[in-house]
Amino acid sequence: MDHENRQADPPHRDRNAEQLxxxxxxxxxxxxxxxxxxxxxxxxxxDLRARFNLKRHVVRQVLQELEQMGLVERKKNIGALVKxxxxxxVIDLCGVREILETNCARQIQLPVAxxxxxxxxxxxxxxxxxxxxxxxxxxxxxxxxxHKALFALSDNAPLTEMIEIxxxxxxPIRSLSMIFPHYLQKAQDDHLQMLEALRVCDHQRLVGxxxxxxxxxxxxxxEQHRRRAGKPQTAPSVAEVAAPPT
Length: 246
Description:
Structural class: mainly alpha
Strand content: under 5%
Number of strands: 3
Strand order of the largest sheet: 1-3-2
């Protein structure tokens, strides 16, 4: 009986190992979203072992988690590669995000409690400070925190969970819109306008901002794909229109 009970117990989980895996996953996630690791770039197990001082089985757990997050894909006889989206996949994923995020924005009950607005404003200030200091990793995390807190105002947990999953899968698409100052500035401006729309109880404006906020990263990625394919651009993208004059 004791032997049966021991077999029924859940396997022991090493908290230190879990924390290490989480740390490495988050750092590689940031490398992907900030463009330090490019689409189609191979993630070599031996390189990761040396960089993070990991055992091989831990590296494989890290790659498995990145694959589940939609940031890495595995190719036969090649190994793990940073996810690369086709133009159709980019448009489809951004379309799904637009449906989820605008629907969530509509569900936010206005007016919002002052303490929740204050929390959102504090996160926006953290994002602005990180952008000013060119601390891109902190800016990325603060940006994610801002949108998580924004959509949490809907009090719809299943919907916000789906938004987070879709946003995570879009990380490779953001790699071009996280590293240039004018994109960071536009994100800050959008955040401030979202806060103002909440303060004045303008649902329509908030929904429009959430929709338009997705466009620059999408268009920047599509434009780079066109250039790599050698295809001329027929019309200026939103990303180019938003760029400051040179």
